[in-house]
Structures are given as structure tokens and as C-alpha cells.
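Q: I'm writing up a methods section and want to include an example of the input and output format. Could you take the sequence below and give the corresponding predicted C-alpha cells, formatted cleanly so I can copy it straight into the document?
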Amino acid sequence: MENFEFNTDTLINFLTTYGPNVIKAVLVLVFGLWAVKLITGLIKNVLSKSNVDPSLRGFLRSMVSITLKIMVYITALGMLGVEMTSFVAILASAGLAVGLALSGTLQNFAGGVMILLFKPYKVGDFVEAQGFSGVVKEIQIFVTILTTPDNKTVIIPNGPLATGSLTNFSTQPTRRVDMVFGIGYGDDVDKAYEVLGKMIAEDEKILSDPEPFMALKELADSSVNIVVRVWVNTPDYWEVYFRMNEKVYKTFDKEGLNIPFPQRDIHVHQVN
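A: Here is the clean output for your methods example:
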């Protein structure tokens, strides 16, 4: 009984001494995280309604969320009586160790900052990098999220994106469509130019400035190849490319122009 009374007294003293601080710390943690979630949501709504570059929205939202959460945790530890000076020193040492261990993650963070500063691409651009191509949906602190043409989500670390080669198909307002069409040997080349020129003139999506270009590219093994280069507005690139191929296939035969395919002549010599 004496031992039980001693433990009870110890428990009462502990609850009296540390109970209020524990309750305060729990309340700070619960309401603090709730407030962080609320503030992050408000920031998201404000940024979406403002003229802030869409590329910055996800990055800023993540930065604010992480910073506020760290402040909440530090405040809760302070409520428990943890000495902040010692805690900060321990945190700095741990941060150094974690930083060395997560050097790749820090590289991705630095890459995200570089991307937002120099803007090699922004949200909505169609890019090709690291073996993937797609539309940039979001630029976060550590990664960039792409959506491929067949609706797959690709997550690429920012570090390689900031330091590696990248092709951005959306920065220029116009693009050149390069196409090669083959006709058979013996076909009238001038007639082919005439037919192609008519198809180009009838297509409203093809720009007249710069002027379309046609020339005989090469005398290939099975065909006479004509190169066609036209300029279009960037969003119209694939529409014009596919339409021109379809029109050439349907029109050449009607105009007496052959679309050749690889073929080989075989000569058989009979030996007595």
C-alpha cells in the first residue's frame, strides 16, 4: 500500500507539473496543423484567382505549408519545456546529417528554384525531357508533374530537369512542319509540285508568311522524294501534319501520281 501511495503521489505530481504543458502542446499541435491546412487552402484560392504565374502556385503553396508546419512543431515542443537553444543546435546538426544523406533531394529543391527563376518551361507547356514528353501540369518544390498525350502522369525530379537537356515545343508561336512525299520514277515532278501547291493553298491553317517551300530532296532507291516545308501556328502542328498526309494519299492517285513502295527487280539467268 505504501508503494502504491508513493506511485499515486508521483503520478499526481507529474500530472500537476507537466499536465498543463502537455495539454497545451497537444492543443497547439492539433489547432496549428488545422490552421496550416486552412491557410494553405486560402493561399491556393487566392493564387488561383490572381495573376500569379501558374508555375509558381504549387511551389509557393508547398513552401508555405512546410514552413508553417515546422513552426507548429517547434512551438509544441516549446510548450513541453524543451529548451529551444539546445533543440535548435540539435536540429542544425541533424539537418546537416540529413542534408548530406539527402543531397539528391536538396539538388531537386535547388533545381526547382532555378526552374522558377529562369523559366525554361511553365505550366501548360508541352515539353520533352528525360525520355518523357507531355504537358506540364504542376511545378512543385522537388518534382515537376507531366501529363502525357495518352493521359499518363509522369513525375520527374527537378534536379535533372534544371541541369539536363530539355525541348520546349510551346515557347515559339509558330512551328515548321517538315514532310517528305515520294513519287514514282517517270512521274511528272512539275505536276507533283502543282498538286502539292494547290493542297497547301487550300489549307487555312498553313501560313503564307514564311512562304511554303518545296524541292526535290533525293533520288531514292524506289522513289523520287519531294520535301515540303510549311509554317503553322504551334497548336495547329499535328492537325496540319496528319491532314496533309491524308490529302496526299487521296489526291496523288487521282492526279496520276504514283506513291511508290520499296521494290526489287530479280533477273533469273538459266545456265545450260
